[in-house]
Structures are given as structure tokens and as C-alpha cells.
Design brief:
Rab-GAP-TBC_dom, Rab-GAP TBC domain-containing protein, about 0% strand, Rab-GAP_TBC_sf, GTPase activator activity, disordered C terminus, GTPase activation, 2 strands
């Protein structure tokens, strides 16, 4: 019997050791240092069972650098040493969610002391941005953990591919794209309704109805000029993207861009901002930057907003499968209560959590979104699983009606950066464990 206990203790020791080894490889994640290493967006050839359907868009493989002092000159690629060995993956199969939870909390203790405003991180951003040509891989590494407020407009334009990495070309490209936006407004928006089709009239009417509903708990968005700018941006985007046209929810997606690009002209808290303090040229520039960045963002998820929104439906299915593998009791309880993931998670994917967490945390969340690049749709599944399982214990106690009400009004109103970093750290660790581990995900 004692021999059996010794063997069990040995196995537990190996399990702890291999898990900690995996954690050490991502230890830079929330220290705001080398986090999470280079992100290589190369198409994967091995589909993950259960989380990828035949018609899904290409998924991506990440590789990680191990230089905790900054960016690395060497990245482990697909043919080199991966973050996890098969042994680690096999052992991770037996780890509980509580083990991951404890490790996430350890990450977050260091995170709050390494916010994106730390002078060391500011210096790293300054160094990357001051080059004649910005190395986007290095910028993504830094941006994933949060971008300093005053650098965010520049960083977001670069991450989205709106502004070119070459600094000599940047001003000219932005000037040309801003003029192109104004020409679009002149051609399609500043015209009488008699020159519009019935579909265009109905679309504009829907946009006008939705603008006042956008982030209703932030008074700034109720200003008439803010709503006029939202209307122009959304209408221009819809006209130029006829495959989807305007879909409710896209109005929310403009708001982080609007706040970030306005911050180049307005100081202090958003509570004290007034669009009337800006010149028409400044407003036009902000609108144009929002339009082009929205376009770049949605180019990577077009089927999220086409008829029947198949891209979102596919990601909701992946979310359901991932939650089943991470927290089977919650998955089983939700199923027993006959609650469909589509009933609550559709809005999460449609609005990218803008309606679920306090608005002052949104730009930090979007730093990570934009740093993910083309891999964002896939990584959203992990962020949203982490978000949902924040309330794992609560969810198992609720019946159908209580679940619906709880998930529609999640108690995030008092969230700070600490809770958000916890969600992101769990998502990152689960992604590193599950995403490239088909055998681990197999039913």
C-alpha cells in the first residue's frame, strides 16, 4: 500500500513539475516583458479535433521566444522545439482547472506591478517605434500586454496595417487614405435620399436608430457630434462592404477606435471630452482613421457579419467544445438546463465583449485583440471561455432562468485591470495547452 502511495506521490510530483515547466515558458506573459514571445501567424496544417470544422478559416500556430529581458532575435519555429513536449501535453490532460486558476493568480500578482505605463516598457515601445521601419513582430509582442495610452493611436494604426511600417511613407499614406474617406462620404453620404436605393435608405435609418444606443452608460457617446461621426463611419463602411452591409453590433466596434484616435486631440478623462472643441479637419481625420481601422479589423472576420453570420456560429460551437474540455461540470450543467451557448455567447462574438465589461477596460482588451492579428478569431474562443469560467462556481448553482439573467447582466461593473488580466492570462495558458494538442482535445 505504501508503495502505491509513493508511486502516486511521484506521479503528482511529475505533474507539478511539468506544469510548472510549461508555466515558466510563458512566465513573461503578464510581466509586461517578453510576453508572450514572438507570435508567428503561419497557417497550421493539423486540424484540432472538435474545435475546427471543415469550413473554418485557417487557424494559426504560435511560436514563443524565451528571452525574458525583451524581444528575442531567435524564435522557435514549427520545426524547432515547441513550448510543450508530448510528455507535457499528456500530463496537462490530467490537470484540473483549479491548478490553472492558481497559476493565473500568480501571474496577475506580477502584472499589476508591470502595467503598460512602466518606464521600462515605455522605453521598449519608444525604441521599436523610432526605427525607420517598425518591426511588427516586436511591436505585437509588446502590445499584447498593453500599450501606453499616448502611444496607442500610432501602435493600433501599425498593428492593423493601416499605417505602413516605413516611417518615411507613413504621413503620405495617412493623408491619402483620409482624403479617400472624405471622397466616400461626399459620394455616398452627403446626398439626398432620392439618390439612394430603398435598401440604402433602410440601412441608414437603422444606423441612425442604433447610434444613440451605442455604449449608453458613457455620456460622451450621447453627444450629437459623436453620434453624427458614428453614423458617417458606419454608413461609409456598409456601403463599401455590400456582402454584409450594416449589421447591428458593428456600431459597438467603432467605439474603441473613436476614443483612441480622439485622444490625440482631447486630454483628460472621456467624461470631460467635447467634440465641439475640435476643428472639422480634426474630426474628419478621426473619422477616417476609425473607418480604415474598422475595415482592417473586419477584413479578418467578414463571415461574422454576412447573412446568418456563419463565422460567429462556428466560433460559438468551438467555445462550447472548449468549455466542455476545460470545465466539464459547467458544460454539463448548462446542457442539463437546456441553455444554448448561442443564447448568450452570440453577443460576445458580435460585439467583442464591449457590452460585457466596463468601457474604461476596453482599450486594454483591444491591445491584445489587435496584437493577435489574423489569429484573433481563434483566440477569441479562449478569451471568452476564460471570461465565462470566471463564474464557474456560480453558474453550476443556477437554473435556466437564473442563468439567462446572470449571463445577460454579468457582475463586471466593478472590474479593474486585475480581473481583465486574469481573464487574458488564463486564455493564454489554455491556448498554449490545448490549441496545438489534438490528442489532448480528443474526446
Amino acid at each position: 500500500m505504501s508503495n502505491h502511495h509513493n508511486q502516486q506521490d511521484q506521479r503528482n510530483g511529475i505533474l507539478d513539475s511539468t506544469f510548472n515547466q510549461t508555466l515558466r515558458t510563458v512566465q513573461g506573459l503578464l510581466k509586461g516583458r517578453s510576453m508572450p514571445g514572438k507570435i508567428l501567424l503561419s497557417p497550421r496544417s493539423d486540424p484540432v479535433d472538435g474545435l475546427n470544422t471543415k469550413d473554418s478559416s485557417p487557424s494559426y500556430r504560435r511560436s514563443f521566444s524565451h528571452n525574458d529581458a525583451g524581444t528575442s532575435d531567435h524564435t522557435y519555429g514549427a520545426d524547432e522545439e515547441e513550448v510543450q513536449s508530448p510528455t507535457i501535453i499528456a500530463n496537462l490532460n490530467r490537470l484540473s482547472i483549479s491548478h490553472v486558476e492558481r497559476s493565473s493568480k500568480e501571474f496577475c500578482k506580477s502584472t499589476i506591478g508591470a502595467r503598460s505605463t512602466d518606464s521600462a516598457r515605455v522605453m521598449k515601445f519608444t525604441k521599436v517605434l523610432s526605427g525607420t521601419t517598425v518591426i511588427l513582430d516586436k511591436l505585437r509582442e509588446l502590445a499584447w500586454s498593453g500599450v501606453p495610452d499616448d502611444m496607442r493611436p500610432t501602435v493600433w494604426r501599425l498593428l492593423l496595417g493601416y499605417a505602413p511600417p516605413n516611417s518615411d511613407r507613413r504621413e503620405g499614406v495617412l493623408r491619402r487614405k483620409r482624403l479617400e474617406y472624405l471622397e466616400c462620404i461626399s459620394q455616398y453620404y452627403d446626398i439626398p435620399d432620392t439618390d439612394r436605393s430603398d435598401d440604402e435608405i433602410n440601412m441608414r435609418r437603422q444606423i441612425v436608430v442604433d447610434c444613440p444606443r451605442t455604449v449608453p452608460d458613457v455620456p460622451f457617446f450621447q453627444q450629437q457630434q459623436v453620434q453624427k461621426s458614428l453614423e458617417r463611419i458606419l454608413y461609409a463602411w456598409a456601403i463599401r462592404h455590400p456582402a454584409s452591409g450594416y449589421v447591428q453590433g458593428i456600431n459597438d466596434l467603432v467605439t474603441p477606435f473613436l476614443v483612441v484616435f480622439l485622444s490625440e486631440y482631447l486630454e483628460g478623462s472621456i467624461d470631460n471630452w467635447s467634440m465641439s472643441d475640435l476643428s472639422s479637419d480634426q474630426i474628419n481625420n478621426v473619422e477616417a482613421d476609425c473607418y480604415w481601422c474598422l475595415s482592417k479589423l473586419l477584413d479578418g472576420m467578414q463571415d461574422h457579419y454576412t447573412f446568418a453570420q456563419p463565422g460567429i456560429q462556428r466560433l460559438v460551437f468551438k467555445l462550447k467544445e472548449l468549455v466542455r474540455r476545460i470545465d466539464e461540470p459547467v458544460s454539463r450543467h448548462v446542457e442539463d438546463q437546456s441553455l444554448e451557448f448561442l443564447q448568450f455567447a452570440f453577443r460576445w462574438f458580435n460585439c467583442l465583449l464591449i457590452r460585457e465589461i466596463p468601457f474604461h477596460l476596453i482599450t486594454r482588451l483591444w491591445d491584445t485583440y489587435l496584437a493577435e492579428g489574423d489569429a484573433l478569431p481563434d483566440f477569441l474562443v479562449y478569451i471568452f471561455a476564460s471570461f465565462l469560467l470566471t463564474w464557474s462556481d456560480n453558474l453550476r448553482k443556477l437554473d435556466f432562468q437564473e442563468l439567462v439573467i446572470f449571463l445577460q447582466h454579468l457582475p463586471t461593473q466593478n472590474w479593474t485591470h486585475q480581473e481583465l488580466e486574469m481573464v487574458l492570462s488564463r486564455a493564454f495558458m489554455w491556448h498554449s495547452m490545448f490549441n496545438n494538442s489534438p490528442s489532448h482535445l480528443a474526446s
